[in-house]
What we know:
Layout: H1 2-25, E1 30-36, E2 41-46, E3 71-78, E4 84-94, E5 97-107, H2 109-121, H3 132-135, H4 139-153, H5 163-175, H6 184-191, H7 196-207
Antiparallel strand pairs: 1-2, 1-5, 3-4, 4-5
Helix pairs in contact: 5-7, 6-7
Amino acid sequence: MNENISLKDEQFATLKAMAEGIAALFFPVVEVAIHNVKSGKIAWLANNISKRSIGDDAGLEELSLHDLESMTGPYEKLNWDGKKVRSVSIRANVEGETEYIFCINFSTSLLEDAKNALEMFLSVNRLQPQPVQLFKHDWQEKINTFLHQWLNENNTSLSTLSRQQKKELVTELYRQGAFTVRNSADYIANVLSMGRATVYKHLKEIKN
Length: 208
């Protein structure tokens, strides 16, 4: 008998350690609650964001354990402060029986606030068209536009360009007239992480 109690205690201690670890890793937005199936009470709370207490009713009377999957969710519910929480519930078996429900509750309010702030900050409705006269001769932007269009069409990026691709880009930029502007060769060499001499070498080969 003592061995059975000891084993249950050991397994519950493991569940508590897992709860504390998950809550610590995702602090402060994740709470982990362990519900005792037999008593219908909350057996443990890690990073309490729901303002409940250990020993409170777990609300399991509405839950049919026979129909409960090994993992349920994620599902959404409302926290005490009116903010949304996404949760998953996991059956935790002790000695072959479902003794506990292990619930991970993730408060999405911080992410939603950040999303709303980004949407407000990046709102295109607040943007005005570029002043035509001011940027009429903005050759750097024209080079940037062509460059990234080429990168998208070739499914690559500046950081992964091969030597051959850089040479192809220099050739295409030359055909677009990018090198007719003073200092454009230096700018292109800098953007493509190439030596200035290498750029001029490619240009010489193109012209020949």
